[in-house]
Design goal:
Largest sheet of chain B: 8 strands, mixed
Number of helices of chain A: 0
Largest sheet of chain A: 7 strands, mixed
Distance between the termini of chain A: 36 Å
Shape of chain B: globular
Shape of chain A: globular
Structural class of chain B: mainly beta
Oligomer: heterodimer
Number of helices of chain B: 0
Strand content of chain B: over 45%
Order of helices and strands of chain B: EEEEEEEEEEEE
Number of strands of chain B: 12
Chain lengths: 111, 125
């Protein structure tokens, strides 16, 4: 099983400022097809999770371009260029090489 | 609109069984693989199982392998999770999610992009 480790686990943010979350996998997520099988999901308070980023860097439909994903192999980063109040919640990375595994989650709150 | 709706959750005793359902609408269900994911109280997300469009490829997390069975009925746009030998630690909110799209030329992975609202399973004596 691939272990996913996120940091930090808690991230206080200031609206208008940038923020980033790191995700590290215990094995490479780079598939032979050239894609990194790493997703980012956000679970806002009281809601179901929603997809933000897939295959490491592709924004899901409707996701603002303030959100970006980068990285390859075992090290990945989710960046928010300018945090908004509505971005609070728990962010999860997930590796999509079966069997899939999630990171522990990073709780983002407004300072 | 594109949506999936879970049902079938409830209270069950340890060792008991439960069958969850997931009704899909607004998209061609038979074109998409599907997954089940759960969230235990106060904890994070745990991916449980994946099924391909025709059910020919299935994966399970080790924590549920041999106890849970995923299946689908494309004629009725439905996904299922049969849960047997339930344990207290299976108490969670269970979500279904739309997964990879399978095309004639092969599959296209674009994340689990449609999630339901979840159904709650409580395992307790």
């Amino acid at each position: 099983e691939i272990v996913m480790t996120q940091s930090p686990l808690f991230l206080p943010v200031t609206p208008g400022e940038p923020a980033s979350i790191s995700c590290r996998s215990s094995q490479s997520l780079l598939h032979r097809n050239g894609h990194n099988y790493l997703d980012w999901y956000l679970q806002k308070p009281g809601q179901s999770p929603q997809l933000l980023i897939y295959l490491g860097s592709y924004r899901a439909s409707g996701v603002p371009d303030r959100f970006s994903g980068s990285g390859s192999g075992t090290d990945f980063t989710l960046r928010i260029s300018r945090v908004e109040a509505g971005d609070v919640g728990v962010y999860y990375c997930m590796q999509a090489l079966e069997p899939r595994t999630f990171g522990q989650g990073t709780k983002v709150e407004i300072k | 609109q594109v949506q999936v709706v879970e049902s079938g959750g409830g209270l069950v005793k340890p060792g008991g069984s439960l069958r969850l359902s997931c009704a899909a609408s607004g998209f061609t269900f038979s074109d998409y693989c599907m997954s089940w994911i759960r969230q235990t109280p106060g904890k994070g997300l745990e991916w449980l199982s994946y099924i391909s469009t025709r059910g020919s490829t299935i994966y399970y997390a080790d924590s549920v392998k041999g106890r849970f069975t995923i299946s689908r009925d494309n004629a009725n746009n439905s996904l299922y999770l049969q849960m047997n030998s339930l344990r207290v630690e299976d108490t969670a909110v269970y979500y279904c999610a739309r997964d990879r799209k399978e095309l004639a030329s092969g599959g296209v992975y674009s994340g689990m992009d449609v999630w339901g609202q979840g159904t709650t399973v409580t395992v307790s004596s």
